[in-house]
Design goal:
- 20% of the residues lie in helices and 19% in strands.
- The protein is an alpha+beta fold.
- The chain has a domain of 199 residues: paralog of FGE (formylglycine-generating enzyme) (Alpha-Beta Complex).
- A hairpin with a 5-residue loop joins strand 11 and strand 12.
- The chain is globular, with a radius of gyration of 22 Å.
């Protein structure tokens, strides 16, 4: 074999080996999808199969909706089946088990049993409320996304129309923290992108995002009771005994763990694209 033929063969072999290394390395560092199985990770959003991302929206008719979701009637998209979850009594304790909890008052309170929406109220549910003249018309996003840009009064009216109310500040914290005083709804550790929609505007989970995901596309972030999206996606409204309104749990705009802790709440300053709500319901006999 001639010398230049050997050199060419060696160059080709080296290039091939380098290509294998690059592919393996890229697979190692790409990490798992931040979306549940049945969803397509488009970067800043989780879209249903058959949809594509356009100007921040999941567009097109889904070819299939994931388990627990249905094809929406009013507009293209998948929406989670509305359901309520019963939660037993919770001894809420916000205390020294987390140094960052120094930024909120010490709190101990017994929260009675109640039922709660499994997810944030979505646009499809709001449309149904409008259809029976119990909610005002407003500009809405995809049917499965949480309703946002709501006033406190509108959220309270929606809950009342469905036999519920907004949670108190302590109830909202208790739903996320549980009797174990969990730092996050799912447990003490493990704030990763597949468990919540956060950090999609300028990282760390994605870039260029400007709106929340469809509710319930991060089941690994649910609480032990099965409540979804208590951290991230959109912050949620709560009220305290002094009639102050709060937004709790962080949103798709949040970047730090501090904003996503179970006790993370800040005063609600008015309607915004990163705040929505869910309702709670009294249980008979309580």
């Amino acid at each position: 074999m001639r010398p230049y033929t050997i050199k060419l063969w060696l160059l080709l072999l080296g290039a091939s080996a380098l290509g294998v290394i690059v592919v393996v390395a890229s697979k190692r560092h790409s990490g798992p999808s931040r979306c549940d199985p049945g969803w397509v990770n488009t970067g800043a959003r989780c879209c249903a199969l058959g949809q594509s991302l356009s100007a921040g929206h999941c567009t097109g008719e889904p070819t299939r909706c994931p388990l627990g979701f249905h094809r929406a009637q009013q507009a293209s998209g998948c929406a989670y089946e509305a359901r309520r979850i019963r939660v037993g009594g919770v001894a809420l304790k916000i205390g020294p088990n987390d140094w960052q909890s120094e930024q909120v008052p010490r709190m101990e309170k017994q929260i009675g049993p109640l039922a709660v929406d499994a997810t944030e109220v979505n646009n499809e549910s709001w449309s149904n409320c409008v259809a029976v003249n119990r909610c005002p018309k407003k500009s809405l996003g995809e049917p499965g996304q949480p309703v946002v840009n709501v006033t406190l009064e509108d959220a309270q009216a929606f809950c009342a129309a469905n036999g519920g109310r907004l949670p108190t500040l302590e109830e909202r914290m208790a739903l996320a923290a549980g009797n174990e005083s969990r730092r996050y709804p799912w447990g003490q550790t493990g704030l990763v992108c597949r468990r919540a929609t956060f950090g999609v505007v300028e990282g760390p989970c994605a870039e260029g995002g400007d709106q929340p995901d469809v509710t319930a596309c991060h089941t690994e972030g649910q609480s032990p009771e099965g409540i979804l999206d208590l951290s991230g996606n959109v912050a949620e409204l709560a009220v305290d005994e002094q009639h102050n309104s709060w937004s709790c749990g962080g949103s798709f705009r949040s970047k730090t763990a501090l904003e996503l802790k179970s006790w993370a709440c800040s005063l609600f300053l008015g309607p915004t694209d990163s705040v929505g709500f869910r309702c709670v319901y009294e249980l008979a006999g309580n």
